[in-house]
Amino acid sequence: MNIKAFSIALFTVLIWGSSFAAIRVGLQGGYSAGHLILIRYLIASVLFAVYALWPGVKFRLPRKEDLLRIAVLGWIGITIYHLGVTFGERTVSAGTAGMLIGSGPIFTSLIAMFVLKERLGKWGWGGLIIGFAGIFIITIGSSGGTSLNIPKESLYILTAALATSIMFVYQKSLYTRYTSMELTAYFTWAGTLPFLFFFPGLLHDLHHASMEASLSALYIGIFPTAIGYATWAIALAAGKASSVSSTLYLEPIVAIVVAWFWIHEWPSTLSIIGGIIAISGVILVNIKGKERVPLTEKAPSSIV
User: Fold this and answer.
1) According to the 3-state scheme, what is the secondary structure of the chain?
2) What's CA 17's distance to the chain center, in Å?
3) How far apart are CA 10 and CA 248, in angstroms?
4) Is 172 exposed, middle or buried, given 0-12, 13-18 or 19+ CB atoms closer than 10 A?
5) What is the pLDDT of residue 119?
6) What backbone phi and psi angles, to 5 degrees, belong to 177?
């Protein structure tokens, strides 16, 4: 990988990984989960609109025949994903959430077998088993490791990981007709519409939330949500997609470290062990498990 692509990809992973702690700060500082999501995506939607209308930018409108597919994928990959992550982080630590989302490519590989007819070798099946074992350990660790009762908030985050995996599999063919920035903007606008349900009471939260919480909401709307996708598209264009995408393995580590420094939060030891196992499964599937062009060729295998 060339230095430019690696540097831009690393920057993107850093801001994506930091979003999990920023969400926790927003929730702990006075915002409800629904209002935090709405603020984040109103900001991102406006920024993408500015980009689309910027003089000199070639931004195409979607084809009529693609509108329904784009809308449904936006609702799955944006709406359901962020409902799951943000409502899940009301009780699940930022680092644990990052590890659960980081294991998302396990779901992507499984879905791709049925939808795209992609075949897994013995290493791939081994990686899937290891990955799901790690996910199970993470979720048990999120409950304190005292019982086999899996907290519903952890299930919300796992639903988010599944949602983004569905999105990445089904959006693959759209990249033959649209750029990464165009599709990200379409998905953002479509996914934002259901969040308007949370508009009542938004002004109350804006007035009563702490300054740190409001700055965190502003941060995740501008950096991980909008700028992150722009820099990721630049990194993919500047370097080899498979090499650029390998930096995503660092995202759960970033989530844990940032949460530790920012909000003094650390996942349980059991969750960390599960995270190591799960990410090992992800790496095994993607490197040894199949001989194909990665699903991350045009899009990230994680989203924030």
Assistant:
1) CCHHHHHHHHHHHHHHHHHHHHHHHHHHCCCCHHHHHHHHHHHHHHHHHHHHHCCCCCCCCCCHHHHHHHHHHHHHHHHHHHHHHHHHCCCCCHHHHHHHHHCHHHHHHHHHHHHCCCCCCHHHHHHHHHHHHHHHHHHHHHCCCCCCCCCHHHHHHHHHHHHHHHHHHHCHHHHHCCCHHHHHHHHHHHHHHHHHHHCCCHHHHHHHCCHHHHHHHHHHHHHHHHHHHHHHHHHHHHCCHHHHHHHHHHHHHHHHHHHHHHHCCCCCHHHHHHHHHHHHHHHHHHHCCCCCCCHHHCCCCCCC
2) 9
3) 8
4) middle
5) 74
6) -120, -20
The CA-atom distances, in angstroms, between 262 and each of 22, 150, 164, 257 are 9, 27, 27, 8
Contact status, residue 37 vs residue 83, Cβ threshold 8 Å: yes
- Dist. CA 8–CA 244, nearest whole Å: 9
Residue 201: which region, alpha, beta or left (left: phi > 0; alpha: psi -120 to 50)? left
Reported as a pLDDT band with limits 50, 70 and 90, residue 107 is: confident
Q: Yes or no: say if 5 and 235 are a contact pair by the CB < 8 Å rule.
A: yes
Per-residue pLDDT reduced to its tens digit, 237-251: 777 766 677 788 888
Give which of 54, 68, 190, 163 is closest to 107, Cα–Cα.
163
Return the structure tokens found at 186: 């379409």
Query: How far apart, in whole angstroms, are the C-alpha atoms of residue 214 and residue 205?
Result: 9
Residue 223 scores a pLDDT above 90: yes
Distance CA 21, CA 80 (A): 20
Tokens of 214: 């409001």
Instruction: Pick the range with the lowest mean pLDDT from 41-50, 179-188, 225-234.
Output: 225-234
